[in-house]
UniProtKB/TrEMBL annotation:
Keywords: FAD, Flavoprotein, NAD, Oxidoreductase
Upper taxonomic lineage: Bacteria, Pseudomonadati, Pseudomonadota, Gammaproteobacteria, Lysobacterales
Stated name of the protein: NAD(P)/FAD-dependent oxidoreductase
Gene Ontology MF terms: NADH dehydrogenase activity
Naturally occurring in which organism (per UniProt): Stenotrophomonas tumulicola
Pfam families to which the protein is assigned, alphabetical: Pyr_redox_2
FAD/NAD(P)-binding domain boundaries: 4-314
């Protein structure tokens, strides 16, 4: 009787999990194990690029890669996971609302994360985001439509809620994008609002002077120490009581793991990520693995844990795929390890800042770092371009660590 490895999600971690599992099965000559992936569409959404222009183009097709590799693709969304029965309930996507139950011998949960939207008055009704392609497209259409509104300070002002990684990247892009829509001489204001005491609170002090200089040069301002209390159609009210009039509010403040993690009876961190062992198996469960933004995984033996980023998702996926197959067929796993940590933060036309290590030592800045960021965004994080099955599977080797 054949067995099934079921991967849920077609993001970076899900794609590599499926390919990594097929790679090991292929190496040992096992043809009795089916690798199946379930997702709304066979497409990789290149989420790290959604702060850029033209978000509709930030996707890569996966159907051909799956067909060449031998991954069975099922279009739909997993609505429910029954760990005891080892099955999932899948609801069709689009107009197809039919449901089917699908069993598994091993499950890999790779459904990523979503932007966290707390119950702030007006947030859902009036704020934009760059969390998903549809969100980023909606923001772009809004910006392009601002020129049809009467000129005012509110029209020309953007408030970016959150001064973390995503907040900085979109804020650095917005002055140019706003002037492209309103005219090169428009008096554009981009204001970052951060509850913490610093811009880039999670990035640490290492790259902060570079970030502050870049934002200053780009004309981006910031207000620290007070979060947003309410949002309406014409602006925001801060927790301090201050009012900022703005027709455009972009929410970037935080992410949470997929809600499906709540259906797994295991420990989770404060982001909703499942605690996993070094082989990425969910602790306390025999048949469930978690990867990407769904996994709280140690990167090394020094107390560092994965970030919600494609840098970690790519390699978590490769490792999860290999290890879930190894677990099922009884061969040795390759424990996940990614001791090298880097960041490359885009800073709009100014360039970027590239750091190495968990203490984020600055290695490159400006145009040189910007060229590296472009290479990462347009080459390194994309699916294999080859149509050769051996090359595709070789790229899923968990020992092939991609650091960016």
């Amino acid at each position: 009787m054949s067995k099934r490895i079921l991967v849920v999600g077609a993001g970076f971690a899900g794609m590599w999990s499926a390919l990594g599992a097929v790679r090991l099965l292929d190496q040992v000559g096992r043809t009795d194990v089916e690798v199946t992936l379930v997702a709304p569409e066979p497409t990789l959404h290149v989420r790290p690029r959604l702060y850029e222009q033209d978000p509709e183009g930030m996707k890569a097709p996966l159907q051909e890669i799956f067909q060449i590799a031998g991954v069975t693709f099922i279009q739909g969304m997993v609505e429910r996971i029954d760990v005891a029965k080892q099955e999932v309930c899948i609801v069709g996507s689009g107009e197809d609302v039919s449901r089917q139950h699908l069993g598994y011998d091993r499950l890999v949960l790779a459904t990523g994360s979503r932007l966290h939207c707390p119950p702030i008055p007006g947030l859902k009704e009036h704020a934009f985001s760059v969390d998903q392609i549809t969100d980023a497209s909606r923001l772009q259409a809004h910006i392009q439509g601002l020129a049809r509104r009467p000129e005012s300070a509110s029209r020309n002002t953007v408030v970016v809620a959150g001064a973390g990684f995503t907040g900085i990247e979109i804020a650095a892009e917005l002055p140019v994008r706003m002037r492209a829509a309103l005219g090169s001489n428009a008096a554009v204001r981009v204001i970052m609002v951060e509850r913490g005491a610093d811009v880039g609170p999670d990035l640490g002090p290492g790259p902060r002077p570079v970030i502050m200089q870049a934002l200053t040069d780009l004309g981006v301002r910031w207000k620290l120490g007070s979060g947003i209390a309410a949002i309406d159609a014409k602006g925001v009210t801060l927790e301090s009581g201050e009012r900022i009039d703005s027709d455009t509010v972009v929410w970037t403040a935080g992410a949470r793991a997929s809600k499906l993690t709540a259906q797994i009876p295991a420990d989770r961190d404060h982001f909703g990520r499942l605690h996993v062992d070094r082989n990425l198996k969910v602790k306390g469960l025999d048949s469930v693995f978690a990867t990407g933004d769904c996994a709280y995984a140690a990167t090394d033996d020094d107390g560092n844990y994965t970030m919600m980023s494609c840098q970690h998702a790519n390699n978590l996926g490769r490792s999860a795929g290999h290890n879930v197959a190894a677990d099922l067929i009884g061969v040795d796993p390759i424990p996940y390890s990614q001791p090298k940590y880097v960041t490359c933060l885009a800073l709009g036309p100014w360039g970027a800042v590239y750091t190495e290590g968990w203490d984020r030592q600055v290695m490159l800045v400006g145009a040189e770092a910007g060229a590296l960021k472009k290479q990462i965004n347009t080459e390194w994080i994309y699916p294999p371009a080859s149509s050769d099955r051996a090359e595709i599977l070789e790229s899923a080797d968990p020992r092939r660590i991609v650091v960016a």
